[in-house]
Amino acid sequence: MDLMFGDFLKRLTQPDPAPLADSDARLALTALLVRVARSDNDYATSEARLIEEIAATRYGLDAAQARDLRSQGEALEREAPDTVRFTRAIKEAVAYEDRLAVIEALWQVVLADGTRSDEENALLRLVANLLGVTDTDSHTARQRVAQSS
């Protein structure tokens, strides 16, 4: 395991983790976006670009910074524990509004290729639940994304 991510994941998954610093929360949430994008075993270039766009818009990053965050998110996602543990850890360390915004971003990624696979739908339901985001809030987020596309 990469030393930098090993320490990060250890802090994230310890019992009662401290709230994450903004930069760490960005990284964890970006890794979660990558995990969902990879869930259908087809991590398309369009999905990677969308993750960069989401990062740039959400965190005020330029193109190079957004690309770097996505790259770090990809590396962290490879090292992260199973989705259940990883997502629960994020829930404990990230504010609800940020988790809800991530659900909306996850819907952007899922809907980016124009199709919703059963794997993506199932994973998004699981992730929303594990993040403590209500079904109603997740549904509303999906509708917002679908209407804006």
TrEMBL record:
Which InterPro entries does this chain map to?
Answer: DjlA_N, TerB-like
Classification via CDD domains: terB_like_2
Could you name the domain of life of the organism this protein comes from? Bacteria
The Co-chaperone DjlA N-terminal domain sits at 26-143
Give the signal peptide, or none.
Answer: none
User: Short name of one Pfam family for this protein?
Assistant: TerB
Name under which the protein is recorded: Co-chaperone DjlA N-terminal domain-containing protein
- Species: Sulfitobacter pacificus
Lineage summary: Bacteria, Pseudomonadati, Pseudomonadota, Alphaproteobacteria, Rhodobacterales
